[in-house]
Amino acid sequence: MSDIERNKQIVVDYYQTAFDGDPEKAIADHLGPVYIQHNPGAEDGPEAFIGFVRWLRGEYPNVKLHIKRVIAEGDLVATHAHLDLEPGNPDNPGRALADFFRLENGKVVEHWDVIQDVPTHSANDNGMF
C-alpha cells in the first residue's frame, strides 16, 4: 500500500472513530505529538478535539458522519463529508464539511476545515454531496 493510501485510511479511521463516539481512541490511535488546529473557534491539542466531539454528541446524540470523498497528495488528506446532526429530520439537514489533515509519520498533526450548513432548499437539483 502506498503512503498516500495509508494516509487516507488513517484519516478516515481517525475521523470516523471520533464522530462515532470514541474520540479518545481516535486520538490514541492516530494523533501525533502535536495537533495544530486552524479553525479559529477551536484550540490546539487533543483535549479540545475530544471536548468538541463530546459536546456535539451531547447536543445531537444521533449525529452521523458520512464521508463522501477522500483525496490525498503527499502528507495532506482532504475529506468531503456530511455531518448529519439529526438523521431523518428534514428540518435539520446538517452540515457539509471540507476537512484537510496533515500527517507526519502516519499520525495526524494538523487540521483545517470549511463548514457550511446544508440548506433545506437549493437553486439546483445537484445536491451538496
TrEMBL record:
Pfam families on file: SnoaL (PF07366)
Highest taxon in the source lineage: Bacteria
Name of protein: Ester cyclase
Species for this entry: Streptacidiphilus monticola
